[in-house]
Structure formats: structure tokens, C-alpha cells
Amino acid sequence: MSAATETTVHLLRHGEVHNPGGVLYGRMSGFHLSDLGQRMARQVADVVGDRDIVHMVSSPLERACETGQPLADARGVEIATDERLIESENVFQGERFGAGARTLRHPKNWRHLWNPFRPSWGEPYADIVERMMGAVHDARDAARGHEAVLVSHQLPIWTTRLHVEGRSFLHDPRKRQCTLCSLTSLHFEDDRLVRVSYSEPAGDLIPTRDKQAPFSAGGATEEDRP
To answer: Record's InterPro entries (predicted)?
Structure first.
């Protein structure tokens, strides 16, 4: 009997975004990496650029493409874009969630908060999983026997992890283990997922205010609230 073919698909969250207004930018265009976010992206390339990465795909949003490009350059591979890796929809897109914002305290917004299981304020978790797992399986097939990197966003990555680990989608956003420029890695033997691992190649660059042991809130970007 031949040995199983081992393939790894890494889900890379983008780096810090320049967002001085504290806007929940969601799928809005025009939000780019901050100077620190660019450093994070370069450090990811420095740390994992010698891995056997042969396939890279990114969310089409600028912050994701900018995060993946240094690693693609280091590996000498083209980086494609895929709408399935995009940020989740959110009815609060464009609202301020920075310091002093009172968006969720306004009565007009309460009608969106009735069902955290779906969730009622955004794209259903089941829909996120369907599109993300489709992208994961395609990447696994494209990189079979090697490694692939998919650059996405915190909530889609975390929802995918909850799904593959058989956990409830209902969770505290402050306790997502998916900090800036982190790697959530799905390890396959042939087509079977056998293990999930997590690492933070740019963890030393994350501002102290954005860390929460043992999990990371990833609050710097404000992209995934509520």
C-alpha cells in the first residue's frame, strides 16, 4: 500500500490596516496595509519563505493582496485572487467601531442582533464555510504533495477552523485565535484532513494592545465586529 500524499493549506490572515477612523470596513475598497502591516507581511515572507509553497491565492481586497505579495515574491509564484476568500458581509459595514463609538448601543441597530447563531447581522456562518472550504479543497488539489497559502480575513478563517474542528459557530470574537498575519494550517493526507495547527510568524510585531493571552482579539483592524 502506497504512503499517503501529504499536503498543507495555510490560511493566512492579512496584516494591520491603516484605519485611523476605526471603521468596520468589511468589503469596502481603499483600505491598505499600514506601515506596520507591510512589515508584518515582509516578516511572514522571511519566516516561511523557504517552505514548499507552490500555490497562492488571495482575497481580492487590497489588504489581503498586499499581505500575500512578499511571500509570493519570495517563493517565485504568481498570486491569484478568489472571491471565495473575501471578508464576510456585515450590515454594520462603514460604521465606526473605534474608541468612543456607540454603534451597538443605538436602538436602531438592535434589530440586527437577535440571532448570534446565524448570525443575523451578517453572512451566515454556513455560507462562509461553504465558500472557504471550496477554496481550501481547490488549493489542496492544486498543491498536492506540497503547500498552498490562501490569504483571507479573520472571521472567514476562524469560522473555517470552527467547522473543521467540529465546534459551535457561536463564539466570543475577542477570543478568536487568529491574530494579524497568523497562519491557520490544515494538514491533509490525500484528501483527508488529519490535523490543524496555528502559528504567528509576525507575532512579535503585534502591538501589545492587540494581544490577549491565550487568544488574540485582533482588534486593531475593527473588521470583524460585532
So the answer is: His_Pase_superF_clade-1, His_PPase_superfam, PGM_Phosphatase
Query: Measured on CA atoms in the order 195, 158, 219, 86, is the torsion positive or negative?
Result: positive
Q: Is 100 helix (H, G, I), strand (E, B) or coil?
A: coil
Topology of the domain comprising 6-210: Rossmann fold (3.40.50)
Q: CB–CB of 36/63 below 8 Å?
A: no
Q: Cα–Cα distance between 224 and 17 in angstroms, integer?
A: 13
- 207 phi and psi, to 5 degrees? -55, 145
Q: Domain extents for the chain?
A: 6-210
Q: Is 0.90 topped by the overall pTM?
A: no
* Single-letter residue type at 76: G
Three-state SS for 54? strand
**Model confidence over 99-130: pLDDT tens digits?**
444 454 555 544 445 456 566 557 889 999 99
CA angle 67–196–42, rounded 5-degree value:
20
pLDDT in tens, 3-56: 999 999 999 999 999 988 778 788 888 999 999 999 999 999 999 999 999 999
- How does 61-97 read in b/e, with b if 16+ C-beta sit within 10 Å? bbbbbbbbbbbbebbeeebebbebbbbbebbbbebeb
Residue 13, beta-bridge partner list: 152
